[in-house]
Amino acid sequence: MEVAVAAIALITFFCGRSVCCEPSPKMKLKPSSSKDMELMMNEYMEYMAMEDQLQKDQYQQLKQLYRR
Length: 68
What we know:
The protein is mainly alpha-helical and 68 residues long. It has helices at 2-15, 34-67.
């Protein structure tokens, strides 16, 4: 049981921050104006917020799994 929790934690740790994710095709585009740059930055910030929430959810699941 503890080995499984440790394995999940390690996988989450190493793959948690965009390492396992494919890069967005939008991020490869060169911004043609400051408005495009602002839009790209907003999209990136939304993505990072979703990723942070996913990590928090995974952490809570690990805590619940460990309590069992």
